[in-house]
């Protein structure tokens, strides 16, 4: 306590001014340190954000390429489906022309629709022995 009373007692205005200047310098140093630390942290965060932006752009590009691949595959599958439907119709037509019987075509179409043996038999007049192979190869399971 003697130091403080000696310090203030000799020249109070000059000593008070010195304390205020020293305190101001100390606070200025603290503030500048805080700004510097904040600046460094912001730069690190900016680098991380740029890396994340690049990664997101790469992911978006990859998703777009996957979307194009899937669209191409969908088109190919639709072409195959169309071809298979045409082949099915051609097989039905050939069966009709070979046996001269439209009941087989009707039975195949009914089997494709998932109808039962009894429904097909009553609608076409075919026997169960004739309908069973049709259900086996054309029926839905």
Q: Describe it for me?
A:
The chain has 141 residues and is an all-alpha fold. The chain has a domain at 8-77. It has five helices and no strands. The protein has helices at 2-10, 12-99, 102-112, 117-124, 128-138. Helix 1 packs across helix 2. It is rod-shaped. The protein starts with a helix and ends with a helix. The mean pLDDT is 87.
Secondary structure elements and pairings:
Elements: H1 2-10, H2 12-99, H3 102-112, H4 117-124, H5 128-138
Helix pairs in contact: 1-2, 2-3, 3-4, 3-5, 4-5
The chain-level structural class is mainly alpha
Shape: rod-shaped
Mean pLDDT: 87
Distance between the termini: 101 Å
Q: Strand share of the residues?
A: under 5%
Low-pLDDT segments, ≥5 res: none
> Helicity, in percent?
over 70%
Secondary structure tally, helices: 5
Rounded Rg: 45 Å
DSSP, total strands: 0
């Amino acid at each position: 306590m003697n130091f403080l009373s000696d310090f203030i007692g000799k020249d109070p205005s000059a000593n008070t001014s010195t304390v205020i200047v020293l305190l101001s310098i100390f606070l200025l140093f603290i503030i500048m340190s805080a700004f510097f630390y904040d600046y460094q942290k912001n730069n690190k965060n900016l680098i991380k954000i740029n890396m994340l932006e690049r990664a997101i752009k790469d992911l978006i590009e990859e998703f777009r390429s996957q979307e194009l691949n899937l669209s191409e595959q969908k088109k190919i599958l639709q072409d195959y489906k169309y071809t298979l439907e045409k082949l099915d119709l051609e097989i039905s037509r050939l069966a009709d022309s070979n046996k001269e019987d439209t009941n087989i075509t009707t039975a195949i179409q009914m089997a494709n629709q998932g109808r039962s043996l009894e429904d097909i038999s009553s609608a076409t007049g075919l026997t169960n022995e004739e309908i069973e192979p049709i259900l086996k190869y054309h029926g839905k399971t």
